[in-house]
Design a protein that fits this description.
The complex is a heterodimer of chains A (about 40) and B (about 500). Chain A has about 40 residues and is mainly α. Chain A has helices at about 5-30, 35-40. The radius of gyration of chain A is 17 Å and the shape is rod-shaped. Chain B has 18 helices and no strands. Classes of the chains: A mainly alpha (about 40), B mainly alpha (about 500). The interface between A and B is medium-sized, with 27 and 33 residues.
């Protein structure tokens, strides 16, 4: 692959998958009581 | 009324349903074809900018509107501003038309599922192209010639609408359970397709086409509008889906985290699916002795040419895997299709107080009838034309209007205060800037510039009258949305 394609690949992976993991961890650590678990 | 409203079984049901609404044919069918049509890597820059400037901010906005008002789009927007009910109806009419041609794409997948047991689509690139264009669709050569119904496509359409009905008639709690199944399996199958694609000779050429950015396209409004249209389509934005889904959530649900997770998971799936398609395209280009952009002219049918090629090239159990793959397309399609039909049913039930038991089958039967022209020999061209006008122009117009109503009439900072009051992940004033300025300016400018170009040159290689038909369709939907908003409701 050419260099600019590799740069785009890394950029996209960081934004999409890095962002996803970051927000999933943040949501899992949320302090707010989770009403839905209470409902279950 | 709010107390009687249906609720999701759990937070994870909602996340799965929202991801399910977002992960659909938009990722594995539409994203690769729009990327291919707009120059591969050239398209990715506007695509990511559209995700950050419109996708995520508007998803937060729609969740907030649904959660705050606990109503379907027309009722929800009416609660925000009395004069905005028509915008909700416009979104509902847009998504209804979208569902009718979307079901046609699914009917192609139904047919491919059937043919996968014998790999009837052929072995080589030209054979596979011929199967899709001439045998399955029997293309008439022009949108002006409908040329009779393709019966297998019509049968597939009937099966699709029955599946949508069955998936929806039990209500949102069952929906939550269905999506656990329909969201998980597609990812497993996609991983196998990507591995097969990447190990083919010539795959690197396809990946270079897919990933190499071209900054010169940033001056082309068509690419910008296509990128925003794709983000709206894939995230189910401006369709009312997310407003309805959020209205089934308890009132203190975490909006921001849900929005970030669903939008990033969705676009991550699209980006991943792109590797399966473009690596296979690289292989096809090498085996046909052409460049990647020359492999197929039928952009809309790209997925139906590249995936069967990759399936043929699997070392073992091609038939079984083919059947599994098209089952994947169907389950993905059903996720998205019921997310398109649900807002229509919810809006009619909310406005006039009709029983959903009767509204749902009526909408499904009407949707099937409206979709029949797409099953004709000229239907392929009309799927392409209607998709262009509904997804690119219709959805961006609704998105633009939502930004104006929330940003200026209701007040962006006021709704941000509400969002932060219920969310763990807080958003800052950057959100107001996106909703009030950046998103509406980019959408408005590229919409107007592209519309002028469209009136002058038409859409693609089609006759100019098809462009006016597309514009006419949008005008009719606008008029109908005003009419519906003026009709007295039975359930205010």
């Amino acid at each position: 692959m050419n260099t600019s394609a590799i740069v785009m690949l890394v950029f996209a992976a960081v934004i999409l998958y890095g962002g996803l993991v970051y927000y999933m961890v943040k949501a899992a650590k949320g302090k707010r009581p989770k009403h839905e678990e209470e409902r279950e | 009324m709010a107390e009687d409203r249906e609720r999701w079984g759990s937070r994870s049901s909602f996340i799965f349903a929202a991801v399910g609404a977002a992960i659909g044919l938009g990722n594995v069918w539409r994203f690769p074809y729009i990327t291919y049509q707009n120059g591969g890597g050239a398209f990715l820059i506007p695509y990511f900018i559209a995700l950050i400037t419109a996708g995520i901010p508007l998803m937060i906005l729609e969740y907030a509107v649904g959660l705050k008002t606990q109503g379907a789009p027309p009722v929800a927007l009416k609660k925000i501003w009395k004069k905005a009910e028509w915008i909700g109806w416009f979104a509902i009419l847009i998504v209804f038309v979208l569902a009718t041609y979307y079901a046609t794409i699914m009917s192609w997948a139904v047919n491919y599922f059937y043919h996968s047991f014998t790999l009837a689509w052929g072995r080589t690139g030209p054979e596979i192209n011929n199967f899709f264009n001439n045998i399955l669709l029997g293309k008439s050569g022009s949108p002006g010639i409908l040329g009779g119904i393709q019966w297998p496509v019509l049968a597939g359409l009937a099966i699709t609408w029955i599946l949508i009905y069955l998936a929806l008639f039990k209500g949102v709690k069952t929906l939550g359970k269905i999506v656990y199944f329909t969201v998980g399996i597609p990812w497993l199958i996609l991983i196998i397709m990507v591995i097969r694609g990447l190990t083919l000779p010539g795959a690197i050429d396809g990946l270079n086409f897919y990933l190499t950015p071209d900054f010169s396209v940033l001056l082309n409004p068509r690419v910008w509008l296509a990128a925003y249209g794709q983000i709206f389509f894939t995230l189910s934005l401006a369709m009312g889906t997310l407003i309805v889904y959020a209205s089934y959530l308890p009132k203190d649900s975490d909006i921001t985290a849900n929005a970030f997770i669903t939008s990033l998971a969705n676009c991550g799936t699209s980006f991943f699916a792109g590797f399966a398609v473009f690596s296979t395209l690289g292989y096809l280009a090498q085996s046909m002795g052409v460049t990647v952009p020359e492999v197929t002219t039928s952009g809309l049918g790209l997925a139906f040419v590249t995936y069967p090629t990759a399936i043929n090239l699997l070392p073992v159990a091609s038939q079984l895997f083919g059947a599994l793959f098209f089952l994947l397309l169907l389950t993905l399609g059903i996720d998205s299709a019921f997310s398109q039909v649900e807002p229509v049913v919810g809006s009619i039930a909310d406005k006039w107080g009709f029983n959903k038991k009767w509204v749902l089958p009526s909408v499904c039967i009407f949707g099937f009838i409206v979709g029949i022209p797409f099953t004709t020999r000229g239907g392929f061209y009309w799927v392409d034309i209607v998709d262009h006008f509904i997804a690119t122009y219709g959805l961006t117009l609704v998105g633009f209007l939502e930004c104006i109503v929330i940003g200026y009439v209701f007040g962006a900072s006021e709704i941000r205060g509400y969002i932060n009051s219920v969310s763990d992940v807080r958003i800052g004033p950057w959100w107001d800037v996106f909703i009030k300025f950046i998103t509406p300016i980019v959408l408005g400018v590229s919409f107007v510039m592209q519309l002028i170009k469209l009136i002058q040159r038409g859409y693609g290689a089609y006759p100019i009258w098809t462009a006016f038909t597309g514009i006419g369709l949008l005008i009719v939907l606008l008029i109908l949305s005003f009419v519906f908003s003026k009709r007295k409701g039975g359930n205010p």
